[in-house]
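Researcher: Following up on the earlier apo prediction. This time include the ligand. It's zinc ion, with the SMILES given after the sequence.
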Amino acid sequence: MAFNGGGPKPESEASIEANRVGNVLNPCPQHPSNEISFLDKSRKMGVCSECVAMSSSNSSELIPLTQTISEVQEVLLNLEANMLDLLRERTGQLSENKNKIQVIEGDKISFLTDQ
Ligand SMILES: [Zn+2]
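Model: Understood. Below is the ligand-bound prediction.
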């Protein structure tokens, strides 16, 4: 008797995706049917384009979400580059220490064989 392991994938994943279509992922608190598309720096909250139209906030205080995302990505890339530098440096130190240990081991062996 064969196990039923190779069958088609369960539908749950697909239906979750389908349910998401038409729903707003990041709804505006004031307008739940609108997606948040700006960050209001002065009020420290996300707002939708309808809020922006009604808002008395200075437009320089409103940052498009796409710009924010690219700024965050830039920061993360810098962080990643710094981490890679650190990793490279540490790996260099590690192999240097391994060489020193080898030299010490070699000295120990020649010392012991001299006795
Ligand atoms: Zn809104």
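Model: The pocket of zinc ion is lined by residues 28, 30-31, 34, 47-48, 50-51 (CB under 6 Å).
Researcher: Noted. I'll compare it with the apo version next.
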